[in-house]
Amino acid sequence: MRLLFIGDIVGSPGREIVTRGVAGLVLRHQLDLVIANAENSAGGSGLTPQIYRKLVKAGVDAITLGDHVYRRKEIYSVLDSSENIVRPANLPGEARGRRWAIVEARDGTQVGICCLLGQLFMKPIDNPWVAADRVLAELPTEVKVRFVDFHAEATSEAQVMGRYLDGRVSAVLGTHTHVPTADECILPEGTAFQCDVGMTGPHDGILGRRADRVMETMLTANPTQFDVATGDVRLNGAIVDVNPETGLATAIERLCVLEKELAELESLATNS
Amino acid sequence: MRLLFIGDIVGSPGREIVTRGVAGLVLRHQLDLVIANAENSAGGSGLTPQIYRKLVKAGVDAITLGDHVYRRKEIYSVLDSSENIVRPANLPGEARGRRWAIVEARDGTQVGICCLLGQLFMKPIDNPWVAADRVLAELPTEVKVRFVDFHAEATSEAQVMGRYLDGRVSAVLGTHTHVPTADECILPEGTAFQCDVGMTGPHDGILGRRADRVMETMLTANPTQFDVATGDVRLNGAIVDVNPETGLATAIERLCVLEKELAELESLATNS
Amino acid sequence: MRLLFIGDIVGSPGREIVTRGVAGLVLRHQLDLVIANAENSAGGSGLTPQIYRKLVKAGVDAITLGDHVYRRKEIYSVLDSSENIVRPANLPGEARGRRWAIVEARDGTQVGICCLLGQLFMKPIDNPWVAADRVLAELPTEVKVRFVDFHAEATSEAQVMGRYLDGRVSAVLGTHTHVPTADECILPEGTAFQCDVGMTGPHDGILGRRADRVMETMLTANPTQFDVATGDVRLNGAIVDVNPETGLATAIERLCVLEKELAELESLATNS
Amino acid sequence: MRLLFIGDIVGSPGREIVTRGVAGLVLRHQLDLVIANAENSAGGSGLTPQIYRKLVKAGVDAITLGDHVYRRKEIYSVLDSSENIVRPANLPGEARGRRWAIVEARDGTQVGICCLLGQLFMKPIDNPWVAADRVLAELPTEVKVRFVDFHAEATSEAQVMGRYLDGRVSAVLGTHTHVPTADECILPEGTAFQCDVGMTGPHDGILGRRADRVMETMLTANPTQFDVATGDVRLNGAIVDVNPETGLATAIERLCVLEKELAELESLATNS
Ligand SMILES: [Fe+2]
Ligand SMILES: [Fe+2]
Ligand SMILES: [Fe+2]
Ligand SMILES: [Fe+2]
Ligand SMILES: [Fe+2]
Ligand SMILES: [Fe+2]
Ligand SMILES: [Fe+2]
Ligand SMILES: [Fe+2]
């Protein structure tokens, strides 16, 4: 089976390229499942129930989150009741939302999904290795295809997570730095890996925010409003082929969709 | 003119692929200049005079460094006397070594070179924007081709440095995370940019170190010796085309050389 | 001459103990000058023109700030026009506000005042040692009494700043951790030193904020409003005796004023 | 019952003041138990079996450690076999050493002891609140006197730990910053608390290390050997009175012993 993972969706530009493009991408790449990290989809930070529903309606089958998981508290109701959205599994035990989800791909494969936060250069958070072990132990053994979004800052920690789960999950794909890394590979024991798949949204700014604002603050210490940027919108992600019998990956490919491809993707979806 | 920048050379595997491959790369890609970050070339951390000389003899025209600049104190003599090696320009004023260098490329172009350390998620260090401005002001105006190695952890800071220097230097290429990013581009005002060009050395470990050792420490808190790994050696870098009249970049391309290419590169160099 | 330095004033409880107590403290301790760090005085973060005026009216002669200097932008006008308030001297050059101030003590002594931010465990900021040297060079040589508020997180960095300025300034007193340290001393060359003088405000919470809120967020990752706490209000600071001829300190004493002392302090002020 | 907790013992000066002074302190203050943090006792970092035995012989009844717990691997054998020494309880599960110990005080009271590492501004580590809960659940209920050394950098986190365990343990006393805080108190539910009890060793340096060396590195980026300093040796700690029936504290007092008191303490011990 083949899945697409879409990196951090940032603001309305990010939402638009996803909602307009996903149906066409499913057809063009014969995708069985679409997973997306939506932690920045509401105005650049957090997620709302309305946006959650729009993304699902557009063809996103499952949603992961990151350090901004609770920035918009409206999302609590969705986290409590929906079965295709996960909060980071290594938040403290009492945190709202599910630590893992199982969704069915178009080809009938059951896919286990979770996300984890890194510890290095991030706010204090529970041990991600222990949390990963716990999720894997809790997932039913018949769920062989297992997807992990590792939302982390440091390349070292991402690589350790890849090695730690190598052979035990189908893919460990990173998010959070908002920049795609050119290191996609199948690790020795069969897990697809990439430090970061990059973000989905405007690329003419700083990590999706207006460059002038971020630069003013960095250069003068003057606080500014980090509004979401607008230009050069791209959808960044990775496509992974997984053997549903073994749960191991057979291929991984980076995906970068530009705005100008949208018309073609939309007509593809309309004419199908 | 065309230059190659080689990312963090790690240990003897990194040194070997550089010393064996550079001459062939110069021919294959018609390079006018080869710059390399050598901060990890001595046993994974620091640089020695002997290694410095080997790299220069192999065809590396200029050397940049990073946070591990002084890990091997033997290098002080080289830093004091050599004209093609720079220490980070935003170390404190009394730090050993030069803040910028000018080297002549094979086509006769004078190229100004410096490196800067990031502040985010790194040890306290002086303001890199101020240091960059100062280097640019000190470089003779006739030196139009100007190269900056931004040795930084955070993607946000790297992108700000790219924007800050856009149109004022030929290239801002990152090092330090040891993982190449897939974001190479020419910024709007003509500066070549990439968050990180990746590292040069063994890729079967964690950032070039033995995976078993790093993982044991990350998982058990037991300190271990982070020896340099050995397998899957690659040379990561970026090739930039610069208009010597304007100093602006016209093209940038990622480069990843595998061990198995060495034989061909060596025969190319021998037969030329 | 004798000066009192009051640590981070937090919210309305902090403002109240200062405005009600300072006049009495001046009498009780025969103070020639009162300096206060006011970075948290507006609702726990930042400073407003109105609060600035209230503090000055109550007898605060000079104000220092910290990392929250610009949290309330209304303060820009005061920073631009007032002569007894300083922003951290190692903010970037273009930052609003003055890097040092000179105020006249009740005994006629001119006192130079500045504050500096630490780098360790804090947001990236310019080199504080260089900034300190620059302020000292700019202050007129006849201004012998010189006061430095070092707003820093790490005890190591505070101790280094004390040693670095020992004999060159009258006092290096810390703020920012909101907890007074029991290490007040006169350093070998004559500078009064204390890692942190503590904060001024409610002490029944966490650094002045409501304990229940901070704990909920630390324990569950659920974001909460960190409102200023209300109980156990104290004024923390240090009293330093300085020889106005040499500018060196002769004594330092911790000061902790409790709410219950206010009535007595007020009647002292009224009856004088 | 009355216990003394001695803060981070640094190098041979720290060891000497402890080994020479403890017997006298036990007499002078009628101590039932002496606990010490020994994480810096071997040359400034780590602990060796020989030093462990010396401290125990001198009258230290129980030993806690910190982030430098494994700096000297020789200590593994002691951690594996001795019953009065604990490693931080929130290290990963496989870490060497015990998470809690029970020692008998001179008055017959059983005292449960553990230490925990903070997360803020420190290397990634497991959740300390969860680890604290687990230790408390594992300690036999009849062990009512319970001591926690919270080895942490940030004052906020220390205060949260105090509030979190208030009423559940006898004392939460901090270590790691090497500077005593002037905030010792009995929290509302009966737990003795102090952010940091300070360190035991030379006070003429930076956190116990030679000031010239630390300053050179901070000011010039030049790596130096941070040798242990030599002068102004002090023993810093806190004395806590605990009701053995309830396990709650009734008093806490800071203790600072100077070198010059040693002669008197030694004669007190000899003559008893
Ligand atoms: Fe994130
Ligand atoms: Fe994000
Ligand atoms: Fe580096
Ligand atoms: Fe490196
Ligand atoms: Fe502050
Ligand atoms: Fe503050
Ligand atoms: Fe420590
Ligand atoms: Fe320590």
Description:
Four copies of one chain form a homotetramer. The first copy, chain A, has helices spanning 11-29, 49-57, 76-81, 128-138, 155-165, 211-220, 262-271; strands at residues 2-6, 33-37, 62-64, 101-104, 110-117, 145-151, 171-175, 185-186, 192-194, 201-202, 233-242, 249-258. In chain A, the strands form two sheets. In chain A, strands 1, 2, 3, 10, 11 and 12 form a six-stranded mixed beta sheet that branches. In chain A, strands 4-5-6-7-9-8 form a six-stranded mixed beta sheet, with helices on one face. The mean pLDDT of chain A is 97. Chain A has seven helices and twelve strands. The two termini of chain A are 21 Å apart. By secondary structure, the first copy, chain A, is an alpha/beta fold. In chain A, α1 crosses α7 (262-271). In chain A, α2 (49-57) links the parallel β2 and β3. Chain A has a single domain (2-271), classed as Metallo-dependent phosphatases (Purple Acid Phosphatase, chain A, domain 2, 4-Layer Sandwich). The first copy, chain A, is globular. The A-B interface holds A 121, 129, 153-157, 159-160, 163-164, 177-183, 195, 198, 206-207, 211, 214-215, 218-219, 254, 256 and B 121, 129, 153-157, 159-160, 163-164, 177-183, 195, 198, 206-207, 211, 214-215, 218-219, 254, 256. The structure holds fe (ii) ion (8 copies). Chains A, B, C, D: GO terms for molecular function: 2',3'-cyclic-nucleotide 3'-phosphodiesterase activity; metal ion binding. Chains A, B, C, D: Keywords: Metal-binding.
